[in-house]
Amino acid sequence: MYDMATRQHAVALHESGLTISEVSRATGVSRFSVREWTIRITPSPLMTAECPVRSGTLSTDRPRADYAYLLGLYLGDGCISEGRGGVHALRIACGNAWPGLIDECARAVTAVLPTNGVSRVSAPGCTSVVSTSKHWPCLFPQHGPGPKHLRRISLTAWQQQIVAEHPWELLRGLIHSDGCRITNWATRTVAGQSKRYEYPRYFFTNTSADIVRIFTGTLDTLGVEWKVAARSNGAVNVSVARRASVALMDEHIGPKY
After folding, report:
1. CATH class of the domain at 44-165
2. Contact 137, 156 (CB under 8 A)
3. Among the listed residues 179, 174, 216, 207, the one whose alpha carbon sits nearest the alpha carbon of residue 75
4. Strand runs (DSSP E) across 102-155, as ranges?
5. Residues 110-160 pLDDT 10s
6. Rounded Cα distance, 106 and 256, in Å
7. Each residue of 197-230: pLDDT tens digit?
8. What is the bridge-based pairing of β-strands 119-123 and 126-133?
9. How far apart are CA 19 and CA 146, in angstroms?
10. For the chain, which residues make up each domain, given as ranges?
11. What is the pTM of this model?
12. Were both Cys, which of 30, 31, 124, 225 would link to 242 (CB 3.0–4.6 Å)?
């Protein structure tokens, strides 16, 4: 555990214009620690909090629904990295074009681990919602080395139970991370005049075949019709375009905001 003087010195170097890597080399402190100090300089009070999986604090309905949503965000745009003392950082990258998504992500993180601090780290075009705890690997056992599409991704029995209870929340998280709702248009000649028709549809794109199967399998359980629209550079693009299915998605998900 570094003392406050070391933390303040590292942060001051970073604020003077040095990069995270340059501060790390100058002080001998890991880049992870320096980065975390620029977000929160005081030690997190949650380091020894009880694991919500083992303690059963995910047993109430609202946290389980929030967890299903956060699971979707994690599978799409999330990662977990290990720091000092077994503390892990959960990072969910959210596009700056949708500030409501950033707020909703931070709210879900707080709901799942209510005594944890939540920070926002800005980068060009996106904001990462960050929270540190020893228990993120327990909450997301899909965590592992390397990109998700290069390793097996499957839900545990307790995760499957939560998803079965809150399937729309999982889908909402997946759409908010790696999906979108767009409006397509087409022209048709009617009585000699060209008319424009617009129709909405949903897309979900991911390079992990396992995550795509989780997405489409959940759609199947809800009676949402889908098809594979395209495959490009290893990514699978799933489309929901049938009017009734789009209406069902609109009722529970809707566009990002």
Report:
1. alpha beta
2. no
3. 174
4. 119-123, 126-133
5. 999 988 889 999 999 999 999 999 999 999 999 998 899 999 999 999 999
6. 15
7. 778 999 999 999 999 999 999 999 999 999 998 8
8. antiparallel
9. 25
10. 1-43, 44-165, 167-252
11. 0.77
12. 225
